[in-house]
Amino acid sequence: QVQLVESGGGLVQPGGSLRLSCAASGSIFSINAMGWYRQAPGKQRELVASITSDGMTNYADSLKGRFTISRDNAKNTVYLQMNSLKPEDTAVYYCNANVMVLNGRYYYNAWGQGTQVTVSS
């Protein structure tokens, strides 16, 4: 019913930048919060950042100042600007959206397929 498609991942050198995008499509009535999570090998998935429909943001404490989340409500798209990347930022990054479909009764969490970010020299 709802698809989230991420793009923008890849290989970058330490200190570099990447911008991830995630576009939601399908039978969407409303999207509440959107966010980014990441999962490194052997570790649990963790919140990177989230943003509400009216622009309130929340970040993992360790990432404040380097990552910036934003969204375009008209395009149902959320972005993650990642600066000063470190090798420990290497992970699969997943997009998440709290969405209500057309004729739906409740919001549910939709997930993208993930995009690999590798920070290495």
Percentage beta strand: over 45%
Tertiary shape: elongated
> Which whole number gives the mean pLDDT?
96
**Series of secondary-structure elements, N-terminal to C-terminal:** EEEEEEEEEEE
Number of strands: 11
Tally the helices: 0
Distance, first to last CA: 40 Å
Structural class assignment: mainly beta
Radius of gyration: 14 Å
Helix content: under 10%
Low-confidence stretches: none
The largest β sheet comes out as: 7 strands, mixed
Topology:
Layout: E1 2-7, E2 10-12, E3 18-26, E4 28-39, E5 46-51, E6 57-59, E7 67-72, E8 77-82, E9 91-101, E10 108-111, E11 115-119
Parallel strand pairs: 2-11
Antiparallel strand pairs: 1-3, 3-8, 4-5, 4-9, 5-6, 7-8, 9-10, 9-11
Summarize this structure briefly.
With 121 residues, the chain is mainly beta. It is built from no helices and eleven strands.
Give a verbal description of the structure.
- This protein is mainly beta and 121 residues long.
- Helix content is 0%, strand content 59%.
- It has no helices and eleven strands.
- The protein has strands at 2-7, 10-12, 18-26, 28-39, 46-51, 57-59, 67-72, 77-82, 91-101, 108-111, 115-119.
- Strands 2, 4, 5, 6, 9, 10 and 11 form a seven-stranded mixed beta sheet that branches. It has a four-stranded antiparallel beta sheet with strand order 1-3-8-7, with no helix packed on it.
- It is elongated and about 50 Å long.
Summary tags:
121 residues; mainly beta; four-stranded antiparallel sheet; 59% strand; elongated
